[in-house]
């Protein structure tokens, strides 16, 4: 069987990685489905999407100053010194999510602040 396959490959005149040549026919690149020969435009031109401005945030940060020092107790907390100003990003009952002037973000007890 193996010898028969090798003999057929030799008789065909081409290798499996080559495009076969058909007698009397020239095989053209047939990527276009329409026979008109027109080049299809870029799809991105069809869908014109205008860039939208960035929406306003639902909550604007509030600036606050620390009344006293606070040393962090958890990994999600941040330490703060007395009179240091921060931006409060989110407020819960007992804690506030804050951004310090060095852009570190963490939780601080809300009792530390004067608003």
Question: Could you list the spans in which at least 5 consecutive residues all have pLDDT below 50?
Answer: none
Q: What name does CATH use for the topology of the domain at 58-112?
A: SH3 type barrels
Shape annotation: elongated
User: What's the CATH class label of the domain at 58-112?
Assistant: Mainly Beta
Total helices: the number is 1
- Note the quaternary state here: single chain
Please count the beta strands (DSSP E, at least 2 residues each). 5
The biggest beta sheet, please?
A: 5 strands, antiparallel
Would you mind describing this structure in some detail?
The protein has a domain of 55 residues: SH3 Domains (SH3 type barrels, Roll), CATH 2.30.30.40. It is 10% helix and 21% strand. Strands 4-3-2-1-5 form a 5-stranded antiparallel beta sheet, with no helix packed on it. It is elongated, with a radius of gyration of 36 Å. The model has no long low-confidence stretch (mean pLDDT 76). InterPro entries: SH3-like_dom_sf (IPR036028). This is SH3 domain-containing protein.
